[in-house]
Each structure stands twice: as C-alpha cells, then as structure tokens.
Specification:
Structural class: mainly alpha
Order of helices and strands: HHHHHHHH
Strand content: under 5%
Number of strands: 0
C-alpha cells in the first residue's frame, strides 16, 4: 500500500477496473486505518463530488478487503474527528473508595474481635463512628457486608493479619483403665464380676465350707 494513496483519480479508476477480479486484504488494523486516513487526506475526500467519493470508497474497499459498511463507518469517523485510527481500549475501573489505611483498620478490628461474621463486624465499625465519633471509621461505617468480605481478601489485609500460632499439644490417654464416673447420668452399665461358683440361686454370695482335715468316719 506504499504510495498508493497518492494516485490520481484517473489512476485509481483504471486500477479499480483492471483489478476487478483481484481481492486484496490488509494485515494489521493499525496499518489499514493509517492508510485509509492518508487516502482521505491526500485525495481531499470531503471536497470531492459524489462520483469521486464513490470511486475512492470502492478503491479503499478493494485495497483493504473491508466491506462497504466498514469503510463507510471509517469515513464517518474521519469526518467527525479528522482521524480514522481506532480508540485505545481503556479498561473500566471503579473509583477506589477504601484506602489501604481502611484495610489495615479492618484487619485490626478483626484481630481484636477474632474475626466475627460480616454483619457483626459491620455493626462494630458503625458503632465506632456513630457512637464514639472516631473519624477513622467514617468510610468503613457505611461499608456493605459483601464488600467487607472483599476487603478481607485484600493483600494488605492478609499481610496485616499474618501471624503464626504454635499448635497446643493435647494429652491423649491410651490404654488407660479406670472405672466410669457417670455422675448420675444415664447410659452407663455397671458390671460386678464374681466367680460362678460363689453365687447362689438368689444371686447372693454363698458361704464356703470350712477348710479342715477330712472327717474321721471316712477312714473307719
């Protein structure tokens, strides 16, 4: 496309007629937009008549591979702003309402209260500002519960709450035998173990015969 924008209208007409069966296509959008802008500027598009404008439009369609609607839209952009180049994409970002100081303040509140639920924490922040007049809580006092949880995911919040607590050992008794102490609660069964020969029919312990020498009559 080099120097192609500087052709005269007659040369452009002959080129379009000679390349009727040939299709062209632009490579990069920035280059295509820049070339169309140079054509419109060099050929003084706005000063041309209807026939010349139609010829230039077909010429740009042929050289870029764009449709008639696309070229018409770019021409309209050129008329409005004098430029054809596309607008730079800017990601929409919401205004930052809560500062790093607010995040650290929330972390300090959670650390003091051992990280309560969102509604309970919001109530604490609201009370600190409304009842006690602490101005540092002015923004956090009106925070929503959902956004409160978002601030808890902030990197500054995690750095503020980063602490290490050693695991407390718990004594576990293994294979220790002791009698139950139900304290009067149901669900415990007490079992008294006695020898089978020591019980009578009524379940009471029977008296054992005295141990002594055998009866003398057995030896008569």
């Amino acid at each position: 496309m080099q120097e192609a924008e500087k052709l005269s209208l007659e040369e452009i007409r002959r080129f379009v007629e000679a390349s009727e069966a040939i299709q062209f296509a632009g490579e990069k959008r920035e280059q295509v937009y820049g070339w169309i802008e140079r054509v419109l500027c060099e050929q003084q598009y706005e000063r041309q008549g209807k026939a010349a404008r139609g010829l230039l439009r077909r010429y740009m369609e042929k050289m870029t591979g764009m449709s008639r609607a696309q070229v018409t839209r770019l021409i309209g952009r050129y008329k409005a702003s004098g430029r054809v180049g596309g607008k730079a994409y800017r990601r929409h970002r919401f205004a930052q309402r809560y500062t790093l100081a607010d995040v650290e303040l929330l972390a300090a509140v959670d650390q003091a209260h051992e990280t309560l639920s969102g509604p309970a924490t919001r109530r604490i922040l609201e009370r600190e500002y409304q009842q006690y007049g602490k101005q540092e809580y002015a923004r956090l006092a009106s925070i929503s519960v959902s956004h409160l949880y978002n601030l808890r995911q902030h990197r500054g919040y995690r750095q503020r709450r980063l602490n290490y607590v050693k695991t407390k050992p718990t004594a576990v008794t293994i294979a220790e035998r002791r009698r139950p102490e139900p304290q009067g609660r149901p669900g415990y069964l007490r079992i008294d173990t006695v020898h089978q020969g020591d019980q009578g029919g009524d379940g009471r312990r029977r008296a054992q015969p005295p141990v002594g020498p055998p009866h003398a009559d057995l030896y008569r």
